[in-house]
Design goal:
Number of helices: 10
Number of strands: 0
Oligomer: single chain
Helix content: 40-55%
Shape: globular
Distance between the termini: 25 Å
Order of helices and strands: HHHHHHHHHH
């Protein structure tokens, strides 16, 4: 579970996605009537100039602007309860209770996060870092590592081992920050660096589209795993004391999430190496949402077996 222990866990008392996030103005109704929409409070006009008859009902005030959004109520503080309960059962089984793992993940997406779209939007810093990573790797594949590094004022890293290049890149695309979201993005990037050798990626020059996809899948998987563990595992789930059992639990969860991310990327049918700079962000955003959709479906399927 890697990064999950570094965070304090979500408190559950704030909205999953703020109501103003996708809005274009003040983000929601505040109970006040806009200027000019306040009725004068008097009875019907009786001066005869407007043709109003004495005793006639006053005109209804104009309707509120159509773009005025309703206030989104904050979710209840127990939105993680069901997912946590199932995750606890999974951990308590030493990783053998796949049904509880499936329920935990599917309920995390559908109930705790409010659906795949909301879960994807919560990965703000991770999506930003992933976009920067894919853009850099695409540039390196097309123009060479030296040119890609020069574009970021990191040409001093040219010719260095791939791990050193990625470590320098981390300071550029995911600098240290104070929020949980930023911490998840950076820690997942560090974990991805540790995975490069095992993935057979030892040289930035000459990267193939398949290798770019592998790096992206590794990074996205680490971020989603950290987000889930931070929300439903930290401070709640007691892990077994046996190290091998803990490793087995972590491996089960990692494999499950990697499967969902890989399925989402492959289903897109997109060649990551061919993406333009303008296309990368949209691709990354869509894959994160699709990955959570896949994880919800995979979780439901696992829970039924």
């Amino acid at each position: 579970m890697g990064t999950s222990n570094a965070f304090g866990g979500a408190s559950g008392g704030t909205p999953l996605v703020p109501s103003w996030l996708d809005g274009d103005g003040d983000g929601g109704a505040d109970g006040n009537v806009p200027d000019g929409n306040v009725p004068d409070g008097g009875g019907a006009h009786t001066d005869g100039d407007d043709g109003g008859a004495p005793g006639a009902a006053p005109e209804a005030p104009p309707a509120a602007p159509a773009d005025r959004q309703p206030v989104v109520p904050a979710p209840t503080g127990d939105r993680f309860r069901s997912a946590r309960s199932n995750f606890t059962r999974f951990a308590g089984s030493g990783g053998s209770d796949r049904r509880s793992l499936g329920r935990a993940v599917s309920q995390y997406v559908s109930r705790s996060s409010g659906g795949a779209a909301s879960a994807g939007r919560r990965m703000g810093s991770s999506r930003s870092t992933a976009s920067g990573l894919v853009s850099f790797l695409g540039n390196a594949s097309a123009n060479g590592a030296h040119e890609a590094l020069r574009s970021l004022n990191l040409e001093g890293l040219a010719g260095r081992p791939v791990e050193e290049i990625f470590a320098g890149l981390a300071d550029y695309i995911c600098p240290d920050g104070g929020s949980i979201d930023e911490g998840i993005a950076r820690d997942a990037f560090i974990e991805t660096i540790a995975d490069l050798a095992d993935a057979g990626i030892t040289d930035i020059d000459g990267l193939t589209s398949e290798q770019i996809q592998t790096v992206f899948e590794l990074y996205a998987s680490h971020t989603i795993e950290a987000r889930i563990c931070n929300d439903i595992g930290t401070r709640v789930v007691t892990m077994p004391s046996d190290a091998r059992t803990v490793e087995r639990i972590e491996a089960q969860l990692s494999e499950f999430i990697q499967r969902g991310v890989s399925d989402a990327v492959n289903a897109s049918g997109i060649d990551l190496g061919a993406l333009s700079q303008d296309q990368v962000t949209g691709f990354v955003d869509s894959v994160y949402e699709a990955a959570f959709e896949m994880l919800e479906a995979l979780g439901e399927s696992e829970a039924e077996t």
